[in-house]
Amino acid sequence: MEITITRTILISDIHGCYNELRRLLEKVHFSTREDRLILLGDLFDRGSGSFEVYCFVKRLKEQMKERCILIRGNHEDMFLRAEEEEKAKRMWLRNGGIETCESFRQHQADINECASFIEKNTVLYYIDDRFQCVHAGLDSENPENNDPHTLLWNGYVTDNYYEGKLTMVGHVPLLNEVIYLNGDSENNVNLPLHEMIRLPETGMIFLDGGCVFGGRLTAMVIGEGCFYVEAVMYGE
Fold first, then answer.
1. In what order do the strands lie in the sheet with 204-206?
2. What is the pTM assigned to this prediction?
3. How far is CA 197 from CA 94, 224, 225, 231, 232, in A?
4. In 101-235, which ranges are E strands?
5. What confidence score (pLDDT) does residue 86 get?
């Protein structure tokens, strides 16, 4: 039976904030049967609920299959490289990996299973007819023409010049803001919560609200040509 996708929901930089993720999905009345879910990377690290986030997202992927898209973030990149490179491992541990290891240890779970899941199920970008998604940023409008480091690490909030196809990103913790940029950093637009807005065709929308730093976890809900932004505060 063919399933009609009624909405697309995008969330970025969960960072182990499991309770906030569950509350946010409840707030937007998320449906595993009718919605498409795109997570823009950095599922784990820093927050205390990385194991719970892993189990929850794994279950969603099993249920939703291709309607659950997992973009690889720089923290997934550090995590995977930590398996092979000592320098990368030290970097990962300094940037939230210790909390992730502790979360898995508390549940007596094998973190290597998580690495296998991330390796198999994450992608560097996703392209839709109306928009595209990467974790951090773009130099070239076509994600395929960007090197992985740009897609995973480079964010251009304060020095924006991108004017190509509408692209959703996370990566830069903006602490309670959702910003739309279209080539001119002096004309940044802070997007309001709840208000239905026409979906633009070009530019970048930054969705990382810095939840794990005390900000908020943000969802962008896209309907037929329009979208709104919803959020929950850290610890809410």
1. 125-127, 132-134, 167-169, 204-206, 179-181, 189-190
2. 0.94
3. 39, 11, 9, 16, 20
4. 122-123, 125-127, 132-134, 167-169, 179-181, 189-190, 197-198, 204-206, 216-222, 226-233
5. 85
